[in-house]
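Why should sequence recovery work at all? Because a backbone constrains its sequence more than one might expect. Tight turns favour small or flexible residues, buried strands favour hydrophobic ones, and helices have their own preferences. The token representation captures these environments compactly. In the example below, the structure is given first.
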């Protein structure tokens, strides 16, 4: 069977339509964040607000700040290892699904500095520390290095970031306010466990709904999974 071949313009218009960038929508902010598979939030706290402002009728920044304070959406490392703003449900589902990509990123970036380290013990200690109270990576690295004085604190903190589903807690990400990027686990913050058996089919369909038509290579570039 054969079908029509879309021109570059048609592909571009389809993408803009699926992204709700041709016309604003009256969806609720959390519903739109879910549809998009999250909003990029790596550079600074403000981009998700601008992303919603461009897409939603009547959007005000306070609506998103309220969702963050209510723990309905969270800031966490997901696609390509970068910070995204996602719904609580997507955090619990996508984070374990993307774990292989995060493991590979850790080995590529910090492998030599982590050689011979018991990563399971490190993750367990880090979990205790961030669930005791939210910590910045600088604080977490210093605490982990106290019993590992021959290790780089920054590498230890980043290993914990890769091995644990860490989320940034308010006031980080709130409109008109601010604070350091302090972290705790998704399970502690949301009061629920991660999805124990997430499957890739849902991720593929979600991607196509927000970015399609697209190729398998496009999907891999978006999420970072091989």
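From this structural description, the recovered sequence reads:
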């Amino acid at each position: 069977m054969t079908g029509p071949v879309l021109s570059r313009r048609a592909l571009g218009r389809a993408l803009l339509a699926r992204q709700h960038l041709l016309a604003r929508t009256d969806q609720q902010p959390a519903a739109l964040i879910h549809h998009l598979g999250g909003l990029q939030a790596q550079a600074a706290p403000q981009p998700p607000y601008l992303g919603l402002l461009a897409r939603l009728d009547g959007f005000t920044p306070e609506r998103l700040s309220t969702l963050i304070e209510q723990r309905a959406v969270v800031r966490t490392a997901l696609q390509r290892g970068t910070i995204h703003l996602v719904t609580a449900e997507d955090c619990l589902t996508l984070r374990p699904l993307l774990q292989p990509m995060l493991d590979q990123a850790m080995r590529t970036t910090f492998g030599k500095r982590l050689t011979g380290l018991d990563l399971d013990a490190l993750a367990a200690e880090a979990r205790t520390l961030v669930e005791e109270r939210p910590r910045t990576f600088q604080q977490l690295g210093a605490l982990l290095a106290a019993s590992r004085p021959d290790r780089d604190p920054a590498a230890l903190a980043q290993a914990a970031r890769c091995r644990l589903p860490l989320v940034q807690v308010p006031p980080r990400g709130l409109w008109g306010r601010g604070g350091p990027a302090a972290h705790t686990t998704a399970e502690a913050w949301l009061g629920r466990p991660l999805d124990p058996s997430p499957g890739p089919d849902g991720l593929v369909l979600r991607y196509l709904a927000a970015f399609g038509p697209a190729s398998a290579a496009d999907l891999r570039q978006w999420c970072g999974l091989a």
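A few observations help interpret the result. The CA atoms of residues 145 and 195 lie 31 Å apart.
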